[in-house]
Amino acid sequence: MHVRNFVICDKERQYARNLLQMFQQKKAAGVELFVFHDMEELAHFSEQKTIHILLIDEDYPQEERGRIPAKKTYILVKNIPELPMGRGREVYRYQGASQIWRQIFESPKRMPSQKSKRKDGDEAEGAGRERRRMGKTKGELIAVYSPVHRIGKTLFALELGKKMAQKKPVLYMSLEEYAGDAFYFPDKPERNLSDLLFYFRQERGNFAVYMSTMAGQDEKLDYILPMPYVQDMKAVGKEEWTGLLDKILEECIYEKVILDLGDSVDGLLDILGQCAAVYTPYIEEPAAKAKLNQYFENLRKMGREDILEKTVQKKMQGW
């Protein structure tokens, strides 16, 4: 079998290590992964082995990058590329590792001259769509919440996210007390929502990078592993939840964030109010319908018609 060498060269060591870990989960047969931080070491490696794919940080001088022989070179850039997959094969750094992998291994192999017949307006529109897909777009929150429990709410939320993720970047986050992550996500990433909150509290830079390298993926749906301890969940205040969600929407690539919400979330109604849509699963059963009616009546009495207006009731099948 012919082996292709895939080399990452990046000055940010932690970013490169995290990217390597995510790529190792996706590694196709016949692909070997290597990481370098020093150009001299990379140059020596290139003398010993053929580099089939090179993913290299733009902060290395262009002249030095040009001396590294590679079949294909992709440049990790901090700003959104003006055109998707241009001559320089620029790869936007602040997107998920899965998106980077797909851009390199699944992108159409079309030469620039082949698009010359497209109209200028079509070209601009296509570039705009790519920038929206890869850029720091202000996304939307989609809530899945119900006062009725054990009716398949989490499965519904995951399937909703997977369906949306077929067309756009989507993130799933569980804010339930007992999320059952070992059941839904058997291939657990090393870090979870507690780690993301800790990083957010430190107000460190490169939040989008940290976020992208810790996210797991199920089919095309990205997810953050839930908190393992209920006490940690209950200790998070409303302001922290809303601040974290705003940070994700503003700095990460996700156009939709699916929130699987439980009753112990501080500021639950305020979070529901932030959402573009609130899916409320239910079942046709007397006690369940009584709980649902009580929940809707409470919203009315508290003046939260805004939540009612964007609520989508979803009857669960098989009950």
Molecular structure report:
The protein is an alpha/beta fold and about 325 residues long. The protein folds into 2 domains: about 5-130, Ntrc-like two-domain protein (Rossmann fold); about 135-315, P-loop containing nucleotide triphosphate hydrolases (Rossmann fold). The chain is about 40% helix and about 20% strand. The chain is built from 14 helices and 12 strands. It has helices at about 15-25, 40-50, 60-65, 95-105, 120-135, 155-165, 180-185, 195-200, 205-215, 230-235, 240-250, 270-275, 285-300, 305-310, and strands at about 5-10, 30-35, 55, 70-75, 90, 140-145, 170-175, 215-220, 220-225, 255-260, 275-280, 310-315. The strands form 2 sheets. It has a 7-stranded mixed sheet, with helices on both faces. It is elongated. The chain starts with a strand and ends with a strand. Residues about 85-90 and about 110-135 have low confidence and may be disordered.
Gist?
The protein has about 325 residues and is of the alpha/beta class. The chain has helices at about 15-25, 40-50, 60-65, 95-105, 120-135, 155-165, 180-185, 195-200, 205-215, 230-235, 240-250, 270-275, 285-300, 305-310; strands spanning about 5-10, 30-35, 55, 70-75, 90, 140-145, 170-175, 215-220, 220-225, 255-260, 275-280, 310-315.
Tags for this entry?
single chain, about 325 residues, alpha/beta, Rossmann fold, five-stranded parallel β-sheet, about 20% strand
Instruction: Write down how many β-strands occur, each being a DSSP E stretch of 2 or more residues.
Output: 12
Number of domains: 2
| Average pLDDT level | 82
Strand content: 15-25%
SS summary, helix count: 14
**Radius of gyration based on Cα positions:** 22 Å
Low-confidence stretches: 83-88, 108-137
Query: Structural class of the secondary structure composition?
Result: alpha/beta
CATH architecture descriptor of the largest domain: 3-Layer(aba) Sandwich
Please state how the strands of the largest beta sheet are arranged side by side.
8-9-7-10-6-11-12
Helix content: 40-55%
**CATH structural class of the largest domain:** Alpha Beta
The CATH superfamily name of the largest domain is: P-loop containing nucleotide triphosphate hydrolases
What is the approximate shape? elongated
